Amino acid sequence: MSASHQPPERSSKEELRNACASQEIELQFWQWPEFRLELVNGQFLVGGTLEGSRWLLKEALIGWGLEAAIAFAPLEQWWEALRQSYKVSCQAPEDWLLWAESLSLASEYREHYSPPLGSKYAGEHRWTRDYLWQALSAAVSQGGLGKCFSPNYGMQLAKDVLTPDILVLSTRQLAQDIAYGCYTEVSAYLVVEITYPEQDEVDRKARHALYKQAEVQHYWIVDPSKQQFEFWQWSPEGYQLGVLDSDGCYRGITDLSFSPELFWLNMEENQPLYSPKLPAFTSASQPRQWEFRKEPGVELSYGSIPFALKIGLKPQLISPEQFIAWCPESKLEGGPYLLVGGSETGTRNAIAMLLMSVGLVEAVKLMPGYEWVRMLRRLSREQAQDSERKAQWWKQAREIAHRLVENHHVGGVGVIGALTNQQPLNRWSQLHLVLWDVPDEFKKWSFTETLPDDIPIELTEAVWALPGDWQEIEEKLEVLAGNGKPHGPRPRERMVFHWLEYGK
Question: Residue 332 and which of 99, 153, 437, 453 are 20 to 30 A apart at CA?
């Protein structure tokens, strides 16, 4: 390569900046709790604890601002939460200002409420989980023993919805058609938890008790730092600890053999799963084969029911149906604006469910009181102008609808969401337009680029609307332009289990 094509050398400042950024990201992961979203006793838990939920809510408030939480309850309810939380009797604006000025600085407050929840073993946890899932899934699939599911797949146990690191449903269970797109409504045949040092008590006590109560047949606890497996088997007398055979293999599950020694050896070799080596799992093939087929049907899934909240001063219970329909993917991304599930909508849903589980009285303790006073006063002024803001949004909605019908030959356009309810506009409000009879040649994303940036605008084709949105379309849609009414929703499907005939 000639000198003219050599990449430019990095300056020492740039190298230092990149090194600091890398260290900051690594430190974030060490400080974060295990990011797992579950429903236990009607509470939205992060990492299996309510402390993890408080941590996530605090971080979301710091990144997105207090208005991201205030949006979900009337302002007077937040003022009352401050009164109860801080045991003050302020009523007049000037009283609140005097009280706020007497409080400590935000920096001191945040430091005081930032407990170390994370783990230095996050990498080991993730690598062990991914490698074990791949190896176990391959063995279960090859043997026709069932199906292996990774994190984010829920297991509904009565009113709880848990998301183990790994779960396996047996073929016999799958044949009952209880495995849906994002959850199952029965206890898994096998559950595997990859434990953190900080999560050890949660996995060995709290989850152990839940799985025992649900009669999960097999519960494995894996400790990557010690390279140890614990094999628990359910019996009418409770869980019994399984043991290895004389050759070092575990055979507590019918037609499945597992060598922990080979597993850790393969992990240390750091080779791809399908590279030549002795497998840690071996399975016996089942005589009958099966498959999943898409068929007409309805199941509970993300967006199945409208996002309608009930948030109070005290914690409010979340139902399994609400959790499944609203819970975002267990994916956390850093930055000043913490993203849950990789989107603003997922972050919105998470903040709302955290408020339901924590309650407003406890939520206001997560940030300094004077910051709440400042934000509530600002939002009070904004809400006084809500009618003017909504009038501007209505004008913009009609103009966009006219363009879609006249210039792009869309059959009809209507509006749902923020403009069709009585609540004031807030941080999460969108101008939500519904389109129907849309020509094939219409390019939604190209059209979106021509829209103004001062108003958040969402375009949804009616046939692709989520079931929860469809309920709102049927009940509250206001037609802005075009003819007729939206068509839909599209036929829904679900995966259905089928035994295969011999020889096919």
Answer: 453
Q: How many domains does the chain have?
A: 3
- Residue-range definition of the domain harbouring residue 415: 386-482
CATH number of domain containing 425:
3.30.460.10
Contact 325, 469 (CB under 8 A): no
Residues 394 and 370 in one domain: no
Question: Hey, how many other C-beta atoms are within 10 angstroms of the C-beta on 79?
Answer: 17
Claim to verify: residue 475 and residue 405 sit in the same structural domain? yes
- For residue 393, is it within any domain? yes
Long-range contacts of 164-168 (CB under 8 A, 24+ apart): 164/188, 164/191, 164/192, 164/193, 164/207, 165/129, 165/133, 165/192, 165/193, 165/194, 166/129, 166/132, 166/133, 166/136, 166/190, 166/191, 166/192, 166/194, 167/191, 167/192, 168/136, 168/140
pLDDT (tens place) for every residue of the chain, 504 residues total: 334 444 444 455 555 444 444 444 444 555 666 788 999 999 999 988 899 999 999 999 999 999 999 999 999 999 999 999 999 999 998 899 899 888 876 555 554 555 555 565 567 888 899 999 999 999 999 999 999 998 889 999 989 999 999 999 999 999 998 899 999 999 999 999 999 887 888 889 999 999 999 999 999 999 998 999 999 999 988 899 999 999 999 999 999 999 999 999 888 765 555 555 688 999 998 888 899 999 999 899 999 999 988 899 999 999 999 999 999 999 888 777 889 999 999 999 999 999 999 999 999 999 999 999 999 999 999 999 999 999 999 999 999 999 999 999 999 999 999 999 989 999 999 999 999 999 999 999 999 999 988 999 999 999 999 999 999 999 999 999 998 889 878 888 898 999 987 644
Together in a domain, 273 and 366: no
Q: Which helix (H) or strand (E) holds 258?
A: strand 256-258
Question: Can you tell me the distance from the alpha carbon of 498 to that of 504, in angstroms, rounded to the nearest whole number?
Answer: 12
What does each C-alpha distance from 69 to 316, 358, 437 come to in angstroms?
15, 12, 37
- Cα(16)–Cα(463) distance, rounded to whole angstroms? 51
pTM score: 0.88
